[in-house]
Amino acid sequence: MAVIFILFILLVIFSVIASGFYVVRQQTVVIIERFGRYLKTAGSGIHLRLPLGIDSIAARIQLRMLQSELVVETKTQDNVFVTLNVATQYRVNEENVMDAYYKLMRPEEQIKSYIEDALRSSVPKLTLDELFEKKDEIALEVQHQVAEEMSSYGYIIVKTLITKVEPDAEVKQSMNEINAAQRKRVAAQELANADKIKIVTAAEAEAEKDRLHGVGIAQQRKAIVDGLADSIQELKEANVELSEEQIMAILLTNQYLDTMNQFAAGGNQTIFLPNSPGGMDDIRTQILSALKVKGDK
């Protein structure tokens, strides 16, 4: 019996001593209290405390980064209700673990309250379009405000992100319709400009075509007149005893016959020239007048 009693005493002593050892995991700290009063903060590793309830582990606090997500509904300057999805990343300051544990009962809820208050102060100063454009600036401003408030409680606000801005469903539909109308208007303007360019280009091409056609006709007529003048000059130099009017009649008659041959060779059936060589007198008279004017120059 004595041996059993001794073994029992040794077992109890061993259990008491063993209960005084505790292990703290990496990125975790432990708050140790003695008779309900803060004693110390223990970091990672194995530690020893007084057993039998003298020293107790009050809490194990994570030092890793945590994330809190919340949804905030507020109103913009142009009276549009929007829903903001906000994600906040925070962690406990290792140097203020005592404040983080004893000053706040529900730190996550406290952070959410500060964020909601900061957003409801900032967003109503902006229109809906400005909110979309400056959401990163707003998130940074909220982060600074919340970080300043939470630092006194031993928490560090690492990052605050506005992950989503969702207007009211009717407003969102109206925005989509306005955007679609603007795009259609721009497309219509572009199409109109393209049609305008086509019309202007076609008109310029037609004008250039007419100009070149007129230049060609003028050059053709000049060549005919020059050819007739040269032919008359050659006949004069050949000492042909004919007057200028007789020479002109012969040349015009030949020109008329050549024109008729070309007209018939093309398979045409209608002609608006004089229908007999005698009808060329008017043309001859006009050519002679032109030659006299040219000779006077």
TrEMBL record:
Pfam families recorded: Band_7
Superkingdom field: Bacteria
Domain Band, first and last residues per copy: 19-179
Gene3D superfamilies, A to Z: Band 7 domain (3.30.479.30)
InterPro entries, per database record: Band7/mec-2_domain, Band_7, Band_7/SPFH_dom_sf
UniProt xrefs under SMART domains: PHB (SM00244)
Listed PANTHER family: HYPERSENSITIVE-INDUCED RESPONSE PROTEIN 2, STOMATIN-LIKE PROTEIN 2, MITOCHONDRIAL
Name this protein carries in UniProt: SPFH domain-containing protein
Species: Streptococcus caprae
